[in-house]
Amino acid sequence: MAEQEQLLVPLDDYLKVGIHIGTKFRTKYMEQFIYKVRSDGLSVLNVKSIDSRLGNAVNLISQFEPEDILLVCRRENGWKAAKAFSKATGIRVFAGRYPPGILTNTNLENFFETKLLMVVDPWSEKNAIRDAIKVGVPVLALCDTNNESNNLDLVIPCNNKGKKSLGLIFWILARDYLKNKKKDFKSKIEDFTDEE
């Protein structure tokens, strides 16, 4: 029971959204976060590692103001959670295709500077990561068992494909970011996960 109190949310909350369910494919880097492999071949991530890394992520993003952070989410399953995160925190989000060059090409109309890049999937957001590397911006990424960790500064192991998993992750990040900034957080988990 004491162990459960140290988690950012109760263990059951993590389990019911499937935050720990990975893929059948495992990269060498992500093996360290895998608790076991089920009989159907799906990897199961270690919930303590997920929770610990979420705590690290909160500490990292809390060092920045909302206007200094960019979240990129190409995966449609994450759009609702990413937009709710943006609405709650004021952090800029690109839900959909990342416009190449907006961090590197000062001649673009939509150019802007950022100090931290967050991505939902390093594979689908590889162009944003490349741009961040070019300008020396640290990258925080949600990584499933099939992701590589090249060029990432902080990895949060998790199911980065499920709507409810992404909803819980962004709800926790928003809640604790605002708490650290001494601001009110009124959003419910349903604001991040429920269908419209």
Features:
single chain, 196 residues, alpha/beta, Rossmann fold, five-stranded parallel sheet, 7 helices, globular
Task: Please give a structural write-up.
The structure is a single chain. The chain has 196 residues and is of the alpha/beta class. It has a single domain (7-180), classed as 3-Layer(aba) Sandwich (Rossmann fold), CATH 3.40.50.10490. Helices cover 35% and strands 15% of the residues. The chain has seven helices and seven strands; from the N terminus they run H-H-E-E-H-E-H-E-E-H-E-E-H-H. The strands form two sheets. The chain has a five-stranded parallel β-sheet, with helices on both faces. The chain has a two-stranded antiparallel sheet with strand order 1-2. A hairpin with a 5-residue loop joins strand 1 and strand 2. Helix 3 (47-61) crosses helix 6 (163-180) and helix 4 (79-89) runs parallel beside helix 6. The N and C termini lie far apart (36 Å).
Question: How do the strands and helices of this protein lay out in sequence?
Answer:
Layout lengths: L1 H4 L5 H6 L17 E4 L5 E3 L1 H15 L7 E5 L5 H11 L2 E4 L20 E4 L6 H9 L4 E5 L10 E4 L5 H18 L8 H5 L3
Parallel strand pairs: 3-4, 3-5, 5-6, 6-7
Antiparallel strand pairs: 1-2
